[in-house]
């Protein structure tokens, strides 16, 4: 089960906890204000007196871009063949500080991520693309994020505007969503639109993805799937078939997500976890995977803790949990425990005779309060307090007075 080899190009992106490289890559900045055009021009004129042979790209990256020497030494070779004087990079730094309003720390981040930004022509490359983004509704701050996250490649492309217009409909026209998507996948604005269109059409046909689903993919860890080739997507779809979910159904979308976000080896290990540690049968694992393929991407710790609660406190068995696998994904302290306590109070008072905890756990918060809290406040005045206290409590199973 789930042992097909994964295409190396489609490895899910590793998400960092911060949108910027580690601060240790940059030197402490002597000032907190971005350099003005005037100060940049003064520096440029003074530096221009240096002969080409005396100009050092590495020193420039340290002194003008505030990179640490070790980082400057690593990225300098990318620029040495194209930058022989400070005139062009000075113009770029001045433009980023004035037109895009990037602070010195963010300029340092942008240069460290893509040093070739310093080789761009301001009048022929940067300024026209910035004007184009403004015309499409980007704020100055958002343009700065595009610079930092995407680098020079985006601005060197004459197709930037058409690429932005291609993605916006999937994000309900929201520029902020597109900028957020670039955090996880800057390649959205450099990808070939024709390939992306074919890939999305294939996903929508086989997985019944809506435009909103495509938008969700774009801002999730699945965004790289949207710019993969159709052949690569077919490989993912083939792995998704192993979950036993029919294509062209809404549930197949979850199978696509699971197949892309974890390696076959990881999925096989998780299936073995259910059998070996939880005592499930192969049939029960297949039932749960078919109902919720993404269950096999949930952490083993969460599954273990939820399973222990559902079996010891609620009294459910493997067959029942496998039929409602979402129970293993829900927040234990924030959802399962508080709702179970309310159910137990109502059962003790003989105010509710139902025994299907799955329905209680699955409904929305609004519906739960409307059906299981408000109607019983007359007979159990402290029921809301019991529920609220349970939500706030990080550990334990029973809180509050249930008399």
Protein described:
With 403 residues, the protein is mainly alpha-helical. Among the domains are: 23-157, no CATH class; 262-327; 332-392. It is 57% helix and 0% strand. The protein contains 23 helices and no strands. Helix 1 runs antiparallel to helix 4, helix 2 crosses helix 3 and helix 7 (140-150) runs parallel beside helix 10 (175-184). It is elongated and about 85 Å long. InterPro entries: MTERF, MTERF_sf. Belongs to the mTERF family. It comes from Paspalum notatum var. saurae. This is mTERF family protein. Keywords: Transcription, Transcription regulation, Transcription termination, Transit peptide.
Strand content: under 5%
Unreliable residue runs: 1-26, 28-50, 395-403
Quick one: biggest sheet?
none
SSE order: HHHHHHHHHHHHHHHHHHHHHHH
Assign the structural class, choosing from mainly alpha, mainly beta, alpha/beta, alpha+beta, or little secondary structure. Answer: mainly alpha
Q: Radius of gyration, rounded?
A: 28 Å
Number of strands: 0
Structural topology:
Elements: H1 37-47, H2 57-63, H3 69-75, H4 87-98, H5 104-113, H6 122-135, H7 140-150, H8 152-156, H9 160-167, H10 175-184, H11 193-207, H12 211-218, H13 223-226, H14 230-241, H15 252-261, H16 264-276, H17 282-291, H18 300-314, H19 318-323, H20 332-348, H21 357-362, H22 365-372, H23 383-392
Describe the structure concisely:
The protein has 403 residues and is an all-alpha fold.
Quick tags:
transcription, 403 residues, nucleic acid binding, disordered C terminus, 23 helices, MTERF_sf, elongated, mainly alpha
């Amino acid at each position: 089960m789930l042992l097909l080899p994964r295409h190396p190009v489609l490895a899910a992106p590793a998400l960092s906890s911060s949108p910027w490289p580690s601060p240790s890559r940059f030197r402490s900045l002597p000032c907190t204000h971005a350099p003005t055009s005037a100060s940049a021009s003064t520096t440029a004129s003074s530096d221009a007196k240096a002969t080409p042979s005396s100009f050092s790209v590495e020193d420039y990256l340290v002194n003008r871009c505030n990179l640490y020497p070790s980082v400057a030494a690593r990225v300098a070779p990318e620029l040495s063949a194209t930058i022989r004087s400070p005139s062009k990079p000075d113009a770029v730094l001045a433009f980023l500080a004035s037109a895009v309003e990037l602070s010195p720390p963010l300029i340092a981040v942008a240069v460290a991520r893509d040093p070739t930004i310093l080789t761009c022509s301001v009048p022929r490359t940067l300024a026209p693309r910035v004007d184009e983004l403004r015309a499409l509704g980007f704020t100055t701050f958002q343009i700065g994020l595009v610079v930092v996250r995407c680098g020079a490649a985006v601005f060197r492309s004459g197709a930037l505007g058409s690429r932005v217009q291609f993605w916006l409909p999937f994000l309900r026209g929201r520029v902020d969503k597109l900028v957020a998507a670039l955090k996880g996948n800057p390649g959205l604005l450099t990808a070939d639109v024709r390939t992306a269109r074919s890939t999305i059409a294939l996903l929508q046909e086989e997985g019944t993805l809506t435009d909103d689903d495509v938008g969700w993919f774009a801002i999730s860890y699945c965004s790289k799937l949207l710019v993969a080739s159709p052949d690569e997507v077919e490989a993912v779809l083939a792995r998704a078939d192993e979950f036993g979910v029919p294509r062209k159904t809404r549930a197949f979308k979850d199978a696509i997500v699971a197949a892309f976000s974890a390696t076959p080896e990881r999925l096989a290990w998780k299936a073995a976890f259910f059998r070996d540690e939880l005592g499930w049968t192969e049939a029960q694992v297949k039932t749960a995977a078919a109902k919720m393929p993404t269950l096999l991407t949930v952490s083993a710790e969460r599954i273990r803790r939820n399973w222990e609660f559902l079996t010891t406190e609620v009294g459910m068995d493997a067959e029942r949990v496998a039929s409602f696998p979402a129970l293993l994904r829900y927040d234990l302290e924030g959802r399962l425990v508080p709702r179970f306590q309310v159910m137990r109070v109502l059962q003790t008072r003989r105010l509710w005779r139902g025994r299907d905890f799955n329905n209680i756990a699955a409904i929305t918060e609004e519906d739960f309060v409307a059906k299981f809290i408000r109607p019983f406040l007359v007979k159990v005045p402290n029921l809301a307090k019991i529920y609220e206290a349970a939500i706030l409590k990080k550990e334990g199973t029973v809180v509050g007075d249930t008399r």
